[in-house]
């Protein structure tokens, strides 16, 4: 087979689970959302729980999940996904319920819903994609925007004295007694994606065992919001995001690491 044969559509191999729809991803090229979507759907498919899983997507880039995930998904108002997930999980305790949220949603307008769902130990999974910015609405500063980081609402960089420090939601919720499993991962390389998948699987296994709330943060880039190429955004993420938001498990089996 020569090069021209390889690029023909009929010869292409697409590595996606059957629980991802055939709708073309509308995320910016290089964004981690598509990989995170596929990993979550791979886990649900491999666990054989697709008919018993309900997702909740709020406002932000994550709201598009229902276009791409071939499972039952409902939409929540901005920041309210944990509250909606709580209602679903309490109504159908046999279901696997998860939220899929960005940092502008979960760590800003949704802070109260997040904190109280975690404190109560609701038997749900929260998947939290942190790219340090409001991606959908124009690249504004988010609670997770790093010190000195430029955004459309912090054109001279985030200044701690007037704007506060970047919020580490994952460390914050790890200290709540209702939270059973807390981890921070990434999906920008194959190695990191494999670790993220294992983390998501562990979270859903915890739901199966009625262990309480599992919180999986995925640090991602936003190359369009950061005004970088995808490759440069990944390098910047490794050099700046990871030191402040270090990857790895924070709480396992109800115990802080």
What's the structural blueprint in terms of helices and strands?
Layout: H1 3-6, H2 33-47, E1 53-57, H3 65-68, E2 72-75, H4 81-91, E3 96-102, H5 103-109, H6 111-120, E4 125-130, E5 133-134, E6 140-141, H7 160-163, H8 169-174, E7 179-186, H9 190-208, E8 213-219, H10 223-226, H11 230-244, E9 248-252, E10 255-256
Parallel strand pairs: 1-2, 1-3, 3-4, 4-8, 7-8
Antiparallel strand pairs: 5-6, 7-9, 9-10
Helix pairs in contact: 2-9, 5-6
Question: Which overall shape is indicated by the principal axes computed on the Cα atoms?
Answer: globular
Strand element count: 10
Structural class: alpha/beta
The ordered H/E elements are HHEHEHEHHEEEHHEHEHHEE
- Count of alpha and pi helical runs: 11
What keywords describe this structure?
single chain; 257 residues; alpha/beta; Rossmann fold; 8-stranded mixed beta sheet; two-stranded antiparallel ribbon; 11 helices; 10 strands; THDP-binding; thiamine pyrophosphate binding; oxidoreductase activity, acting on the aldehyde or oxo group of donors, iron-sulfur protein as acceptor
């Amino acid at each position: 087979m020569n090069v021209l044969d390889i690029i023909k559509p009929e010869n292409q191999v697409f590595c996606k689970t059957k629980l991802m729809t055939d709708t073309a991803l509308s995320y910016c090229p290089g964004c981690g959302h598509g990989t995170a979507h596929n990993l979550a759907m791979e886990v649900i498919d491999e666990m054989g729980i697709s008919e018993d899983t309900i997702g909740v997507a709020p406002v932000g880039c994550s709201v598009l999940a229902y276009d791409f995930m071939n499972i039952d998904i409902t939409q929540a108002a901005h920041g309210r996904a944990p509250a909606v997930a709580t209602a679903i999980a309490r109504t159908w305790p046999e279901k696997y319920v998860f939220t899929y949220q960005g940092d502008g949603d979960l760590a800003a307008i949704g802070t109260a819903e997040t904190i109280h769902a975690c404190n109560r130990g609701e038997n749900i999974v929260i998947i939290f994609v942190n790219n340090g910015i409001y991606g959908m609405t124009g690249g504004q500063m988010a609670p997770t925007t790093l010190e000195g980081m430029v955004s459309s609402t912090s054109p001279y960089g985030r200044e701690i004295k007037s704007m506060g420090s970047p919020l580490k939601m994952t460390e914050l919720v790890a200290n709540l007694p209702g939270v059973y499993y807390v981890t921070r991962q990434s999906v920008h390389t194959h190695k990191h994606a494999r670790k993220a998948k294992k983390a998501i699987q562990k979270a859903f296994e915890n739901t199966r065992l009625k262990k309480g709330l599992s919180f999986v943060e995925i640090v991602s880039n936003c190359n369009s919001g950061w005004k970088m190429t995808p490759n440069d955004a990944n390098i910047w993420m490794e050099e700046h995001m990871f030191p402040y938001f270090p990857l790895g498990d924070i709480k396992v089996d109800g115990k802080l690491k």
